[in-house]
Amino acid sequence: MQLLSNQSLRAFNTFGIDCVARHFAEFNTEEDLTSLLDTPEVKKNKRLILGGGSNLLFTQPFDGVVLKNNLQGIELIEEDNDHYYVRAQAGENWHSFVMHCIDRNYAGVENLSLIPGCVGASPMQNIGAYGVEIKDVFHRLEAIHIEDKHKHTFELAECSFGYRESIFKNKEKNNWVITNVTFKLDKRARLKTGYGAIEEELDKMHLDQITIKDVSKAVIQIRSSKLPDPKILGNAGSFFKNPVVPIDVYQSIQKEWPTAPAYPISEHEVKVPAGWLIEQAGWKGKKRITHGVHDKQALVLVNFGDARGQEILQLSTDIIADIQSKFNITLEREVNIY
Ligand code: EPU
Q: Which listed residue (122, 166, 238, 316) is catalytic?
């Protein structure tokens, strides 16, 4: 544990944006973390707790302290007839955690294979894919308060999980360092293969019996075919949320595009895939020299090498304005802007 000054964050964000933090430290234990929270640099400055850096865009130098969470360890802490309770430390890589579960037949997170980032960030935005969200497998988490360092256990009901939302993005934003998360996983798998593309992939495998490993393989196959690998092409996954719109807004889109996709939310609202809207508006695959819109999934913005955060932010602003004028829908960014 060492406080560094003027550290480049390029290796610590999946967009690969070159940005400097005034102060930077990594912590490997909770004791290291609490000592860091006592330093004048941390007390006096704004702070950013960093996990995998996979859901943020730096648009300017970070004039504060960045604390990188490296807490490691996964343990089975309890089991009952139906469940395994598995505690993972916040700095564990998310996909490695999923693989750990699949190898031991702990079911429930297989649809969340290959999501970039780390365990500690997963509840922040209630990560989700292919019909499963963290809230479906979440048991509880432990966190340390940044100001007074007391420890608190957040139970499921306290986290206010919603679509890409939690209390940690809202009311409790920047107040806590999540140190570990306990997941409630199934002993008998309840496979969720209803998502069209998963069925298709599984069919291609010609299996007699489907296991969680097969579902994971199908998800990995789908994700790798559409979503860029951040090690090769900088990105932060979905840049926007899928907007929930009144049914009449959707019906007016349907007049021009009768097959426009949408998922029912309530009697009056539907969720429209932002990727579809962005593609219809002509942005898919658009390049602006250093950055652009991914050619296989329009919801993802990419850095071709030397993009500045401001440029990517501007691209997202232009897309938002265009979708507003073409569809009368306001897109919201999913990625956190710093
Ligand atoms: N679509 C297009 N053009 C595109 C992209 C999508 O027409 O360029 C259409 C697809 O054809 C499909 C619909 O939009 O009809 C949905 O597309 P997809 O299944 O690829 O999912 P998504 O709604 O674009 C969401 C999540 C992803 C998650 C997938 C699968 C959000 C913001 N994104 O994307 O999450 O992997 O569903 O469950 O909810 C992430 O959060 O970083 C992320 C990748």
A: 238
Alpha-carbon gap, residue 183 to 136, rounded angstroms: 9
Active site residue 238: yes
Query: Does the beta carbon of 277 sit less than 6 angstroms from any atom of ligand 1?
Result: no
pLDDT per residue as tens digits for the range 138-180: 999 999 999 999 999 999 999 999 999 999 999 999 999 999 9
For residue 55 the two structure tokens come to 């859901």
The tokens for 262 are: 């949408």
For the entire predicted model, the pTM comes to 0.95
| Ligand 1 center to 265 CA (angstroms) | 16
- Phi, psi torsion values for 226, nearest 5 degrees: -110, -35
Structure-token pair, residue 124: 């922040």
- CATH: 3.90.78.10, 3.30.260.10, 3.40.50.11190, 2.60.120.200. Which one for 234-337? 3.90.78.10
74-186 placed in CATH 3.30.465.10: yes
Q: What does the pLDDT look like over 239-295, one tens digit per residue?
A: 999 999 999 999 999 999 999 999 999 999 999 999 999 999 999 999 999 999 999
Residue among 26, 133, 201, 334 flagged as catalytic: 334
Whether 309 is in the pocket of ligand 1, judged by its Cβ within 6 Å, is no
Q: Which atom of ligand 1 is nearest to the CA of 129?
A: 38
- Residue spans per domain, the chain: 4-69, 74-186, 234-337
